[in-house]
Every structure is written in C-alpha cells, then in structure tokens.
Amino acid sequence: MLDNASPDGHTDLTERDADIGDPASPVPDELAPEYAGDGEPSLGDDITALVDDGKAYVQAELAFQKSRAAFAAGEVKAGTVFALGMLAFLHLALIGLVVGLILSLAPIVGPLGATGIVVGVLLLGMALLGWLAVTHFKKISRAFDDGKGAGSEDTSA
User: Fold this and answer.
1) Can you spell out the DSSP letters for the chain?
2) pLDDT tens, 13-42?
3) Which pTM was predicted?
4) Residue burial 1-37, b: 16+ Cβ < 10 Å; e: rest
5) CB of 152 within 8 A of CB of 145?
6) pLDDT on residue 60
7) pLDDT above 90: residue 93
8) How far, CA to CA in Å, does 52 sit from each of 63, 64, 153?
9) Euclidean distance between CA atoms 77 and 30, whole angstroms
10) What pLDDT, on a 0 to 100 scale, did the predictor assign at position 90?
C-alpha cells in the first residue's frame, strides 16, 4: 500500500496548502493583507503611493531650488564685488580727467580760472542730474498719492 503522506509529514494536501499559502498567488503571504484579492494593488494603495511620490517630488524640488538660490546668491555676491571694483576704477579715471582738464586750461586762463571752470561745469551737471532725479521721484509720489493722504498738498492754487 502506498503512503499518502507528503515529505513534510502532512497526509492531506488541503492541510499542506493551508500551511504554505496559495502557491499560484504572485504576492507572498506576509504581504497579502496589503493587496486586494486578485494580486493587484487596491485603490487605497495607489493613492498612498501617489501621495508618497508627490511628497518625494516636492522635497526634491525644494532641495533643487535651495541649491539654485545658493548658487545665485554666490554669483550675485561675486558680481557685486566686481561691479564695485569697476566703479572704483571709473571714479579714479574721472578724477584723472578732471585733473587733466584743469592742467590743460591752466596755461590759457590760469590755475584758479581752470579750477573754477571745471568745478563750475561739474556743479552744473550735478544740478541738472539732481533736478531730473527729483522730478522722477515726484512722479512716483504722485502715482501713489490718492489726494486724501495727510502729506498731500493742493498745488492747483
């Protein structure tokens, strides 16, 4: 007579299959509670995975934007230093131009006359640029003035 016992000692195949789970299932038994019955992820699992992917995307995007901002800040800092150096050299060049103008005019009108002419022209240029700046700043002030503010003045009189 043949022994119907399996190598693991079970005599009933149903009893053996209950111990090892469903051999046709693609999902291991320890993960089975996470999935719906046919081995496909459930809608809840899909939503959870979507939320997790969204969180990972947002974290990666924030890290990327932080690194871009740090890069931009470093480049702005370096660019500012070079721009200030450029302005310093421009200032020195303009001083040289003024001294050269005074020295060039000195034989014609004398040293005091040359100094007076150069300084006078520079002061006129400064006054013109200052007047232009004030008129533009007043335009800004009028753009934001609603006529009801405490500092508004009636200039129509």
Assistant:
1) ------TTS-S-HHHHHHHH--TT-SS-GGGGGGS-TTSSPPHHHHHHHHHHHHHHHHHHHHHHHHHHHHHHHHHHHHHHHHHHHHHHHHHHHHHHHHHHHHHHHHHHH-HHHHHHHHHHHHHHHHHHHHHHHHHHHHHHHHHH--S-STT------
2) 555 555 555 555 555 555 555 554 566 878
3) 0.49
4) eeeeeeeeebeeeeeeeeeeeeeeeebeeeeeeeeee
5) yes
6) 94
7) yes
8) 17, 18, 60
9) 57
10) 96
The amino acid at residue 82 is: F
Per-residue tokens: 35: 């999935």
The owner of tokens 């990666």 is 60
